[in-house]
Amino acid sequence: MPDDQANSIPSLVDDPVDDVITTLRDDLLGGDGFLVVLLLTIAAVILIPIDGAFRGGAIVSTVVGALLVLTTLSRSRVSTKFRVIGGIIVGLSVTLALISVIRDIQPAITPPTGFNKLLVSVGSFSYCVVLALCFPAILRRTFAHRRVTLNTVAASLAAYLLLGLIFMSMYRFVNIVNGPFFVQPNVNGFTFEYFSFVTLTTVGFGDFTAATDAGRAVAMLEALIGQVFLVTIVALVVSNLGQGSSSLRGLTSPTTNAVGPNPEATIESSGETSTEPR
Questions:
Q1: What is the pLDDT of residues 8-53, one digit of tens each?
Q2: CA distances from 127 to 145, 158, 201 (A)
Q3: Does residue 57 contact residue 51 with C-beta atoms inside 8 Å?
């Protein structure tokens, strides 16, 4: 066959490099991409230690947490009402963090009293609630994927890391309303995150221990949820990578969930076909 005729025939083989680039671009920038959610979750985990490093540290970590929440709710395609509620709580958390910085309140170091205690209690609780809103939203969208891809893995890993942040904020809240949380002294803001992820992974170094029954109860709950989530959801997603997600869908209702109806499942059940994002 002449070269000019061979060159005129379109290639039937896709370039694997282009496929990888397209996949990564969709996962990062696409409306259904959870890679950016995973990256924001990792950033939130990394930035927690700067809470007490300088005066504005709490604002930086809170703003990153706010971006994480808003991005998660957007990518999860929850209802407008759910997103509005999340946005209101995010705004409240950022505002209270700003006020706490202005008033130079550091509850992990000096127990607040009076109005300051009320202020940081509401701020800590609102931060916990807004993170907790993201958890079912991520799982809901994860189980809606028709095919288990790296995007699905990123969503499940983001949810797992989010558990550590949720319980960290719960420990901080307990420390404020029923503190001190730890038996040991020399505690700072990062100590709560450290204790949370050590408990989540059931490593249990023992260098920090809960001082109250409320703290021990929350720590037990985190250890149980962390192990169950890791050996079921994450393991199931990773083991089914590249396959259909019928096995994942069996864990949740095909048409409804905690944060609203599943539009893809509704279309599927009506006999119509649609193209599901990865």
A1: 545 445 566 677 677 667 666 667 788 889 999 999 999 888 776 6
A2: 29, 17, 22
A3: yes
Residue 13 lies in a domain: no
Cα-Cα end-to-end distance for the chain: 40
What is the domain count for the chain? 1
How far is Cα of residue 48 from the mean position of the Cα atoms in its chain?
Answer: 14
pLDDT tier, 269 (very low <50, low <70, confident <90, very high otherwise): very low
Query: Using CA atoms, how far apart are residues 240 and 29, in angstroms rounded to an integer?
Result: 24
Neighbouring C-alpha atoms within 13 Å toward the C-beta of 264? 20
275 belongs to a structural domain: no
Q: Which domain holds residue 56?
A: 18-269
Percentages helix, strand, coil for the chain (3-state, rounded to 5) are 70, 0, 30
Rounded Cα–Cα distance for residues 264 and 27 (Å): 19
Greatest mean pLDDT among 16-30, 147-161, 234-248, 252-266:
147-161
d(CA 200, CA 50): 21
Write down the pLDDT at residue 60: 82
Please, how many CA atoms are within 13 Å of residue 214, restricted to the half-sphere of its CB?
Answer: 12
What DSSP state is assigned to residue 234? I
Query: Facing residues of 182 across strands?
Result: 210
For every residue of 159-208, DSSP letters joined together read HHHHHHHHHHHHHHHHHHHH---BSSS---HHHHHHHHHHHHTT----SS
pLDDT one-digit tens code per residue, 79-109: 888 889 889 988 988 888 888 878 777 776 6
Element (H, E) at 85: helix 80-102
**Is 6 part of a structural domain of the chain?**
no
